[in-house]
Design goal:
Layout: E1 27-32, H1 36-47, E2 52-56, H2 63-67, H3 70-84, H4 89-92, H5 104-128, E3 132-135, E4 137-142, E5 145-149, E6 156-166, E7 170-172, E8 185-187, E9 200-204, H6 208-219, E10 223-228, H7 239-251, E11 255-258, E12 262-268, E13 271-276, E14 281-284, E15 286-289, E16 293-295, E17 328-330, H8 341-355, H9 368-371, E18 374-376, E19 382-386, H10 389-394, E20 400-405, H11 410-415, E21 421-426, E22 433-439, H12 443-455, H13 460-465, H14 475-493
Helix pairs in contact: 1-8, 3-5, 3-6
Length: about 500
């Protein structure tokens, strides 16, 4: 979050004030965007008995998250894992496959089904909570009025609201020097519309989205080259986990070009040639750009409401998600980091509560930001919450490491995962969990055990004494906890 200018920042009590009686306006709350943040803001306000509406384009219910982002990409990943037999190769050999000739249709059949079901669920939730869904593009007229423009000619209306939540999300950033044709040169949205699985691919950008797609296509047998101008990928993650991920991606024939910038891309009927600033040339059937995301604020004309967006289309907010205009809030990817669906949901809920004077009690709990988990759906998965070793070292915070490896767990052998690991960072003085880092099967599920303990102020001693189901991957917590406490005990003998 970015702090709002103190000169324009109203006090928390201002959130409940009405400049104009609400009866004069159509809604108590109007939400622009139906993604995770917008949904939860709308439903939270509706639960408070407010009159609420959500503005969303036809065919985009659920936002980018449901239509082109999180849901389709994660569903695609599951289809890849199943059809390639990747998860079972540790048991049945490297040649094991469920289907030999996998097509795009095979992959997308499941994706389209899941998207359809998610849209039904979202529509039902909004309807059940009496939230109006206004179909069309929303554009600010002024700070209390939004014009909703539909697809059909003359299909538009002006809607007024006491409070407004901007949850319009982001779209892939497209560098102006690159000519996207949505066939040979695509972005992370366009990749879902491909008609064939390419034999070779260049992925520009080693961020979360780029690495997730690189691992998926590598598992399908595509020769993938990742180009990244930074010297490292996923530098916010644990260094040991990132090294393990790179090892497994290289094992899938992924080539990394770190410290390299793309000078241009040439396209022909035979494919593409990516030219690097260093002079190298990389031929491939397809190039996928994953060069960050751009906030969708230009289309809604935020300047008419007295708002400003930065060069990446992001809106500044305070700790309550208020913009510089006190009755307008912004949540989700449009406010920048961390830009996760899960955090966007909580931001939407908190924004709605604050807008109507509801202040949830935070006493005795770790803040949402401190223990929010991060999930990276690569093959294999990566997930963590809390601090990394590098962050603790930089802050001069002492810690001890406890590690458990899946290959030492019975469940790890059963599921064929002999490379997964769980790492706990523990305070030697208080035994508090400072960080939880998981790599391998079900990493994005397992991390929540550590998150719950951290959020409740628990210690590693709980895990030492806990009785966990056997055989499970959750046992990794007890093994890692024992490893950490044994090291701490050895240190205490010398104290």
């Amino acid at each position: 979050m970015h702090p709002v200018d103190p000169a324009t920042d109203p006090s928390p009590d201002d959130a409940a004030e009405e400049t104009v009686p609400s009866a004069r306006r159509d809604y108590d709350l109007l939400v622009l965007g139906s993604g995770p943040g917008g949904q939860k803001a709308a439903i939270a306000a509706a639960k408070l008995g407010k009159r609420v509406a959500v503005v969303e384009r036809r065919g985009m219910v659920g936002g980018v998250c449901t239509q082109t982002g999180t849901i389709p990409s994660k569903t695609l990943r599951e289809a890849v894992l199943y059809l390639t037999g990747y998860a079972m190769r540790g048991l049945y050999g490297e040649s094991y496959r469920v289907k030999q000739d996998i097509t795009v249709q095979d992959l997308l059949a499941r994706t389209h089904f899941v998207i359809g079901r998610e849209v039904e669920v979202i529509r039902a939730q909004l309807q059940r909570n009496r939230v109006d869904l206004l179909s069309g593009e929303g554009r600010f007229v002024d700070e209390h009025t939004v014009e909703v423009v539909g697809e059909r000619r003359g299909e538009h209306q002006a809607v007024t609201a006491d409070r407004i939540v901007v949850a319009t999300g982001t779209r892939p950033a497209r560098p102006p020097e690159v000519e996207f044709d949505d066939r040979r040169v695509v972005d992370s949205d366009g990749i879902l519309a491909m008609d064939t699985i390419p034999a070779s691919m260049v992925v520009v950008g080693a961020g979360v989205i780029g690495i997730e797609y690189a691992s998926m296509f590598a598992a399908l047998g595509t020769r993938v080259t990742v180009v990244e101008k930074r010297p490292q990928m996923l530098d916010f993650c644990d260094a040991e986990v990132v090294e393990s991920l790179k090892f497994h991606l290289r094992d899938l024939a992924v080539t990394f070009r770190f410290g390299e910038e793309v000078a241009g891309v040439s396209v022909s009927d035979r494919g593409t040639v990516t030219r690097l600033a260093s002079g190298k040339k990389i031929p491939a059937e397809t190039v996928m750009y994953s060069a960050g995301r751009q906030g969708v604020t230009d289309e809604i004309r935020v300047e008419r409401a007295g708002l400003e967006a930065d060069a990446r289309g992001r809106i500044k907010v305070d700790e309550h998600y208020r913009t510089a205009v006190p009755h307008i809030y912004a949540v989700g990817d449009v406010i920048g980091f961390p830009a996760l669906a899960a955090t966007s949901m909580e931001q939407g809920r908190q924004a709605a509560y604050h807008a109507f004077g509801e202040h949830p009690k935070e006493a005795g709990r770790a803040s949402m930001t401190d223990v929010s988990p991060y999930g990276i759906y690569t093959i294999p998965e990566v997930s963590y919450c809390g601090a990394t070793e590098a962050e603790l070292t930089e802050k001069s915070v002492p810690y001890e490491v406890g590690i458990s490896r899946y290959r030492e767990l019975a469940r790890g052998q059963i599921v064929g995962d002999n490379y997964g690991m769980l790492k706990l960072l523990v305070s030697p003085e208080t035994h508090a969990l400072l960080g939880v880092h998981v790599f391998g099967t079900s990493a994005t599920e397992l991390v929540h055990i550590g998150q719950a303990i951290m959020g409740c102020g628990g210690t590693v001693d709980y895990l030492v004494d806990a009785v966990l189901n056997y055989p499970t991957l959750s046992e990794a917590y007890k093994v890692a906890a024992l490893d950490a406490t044994n090291k701490i005990r050895a240190l205490e003998q010398f104290a």
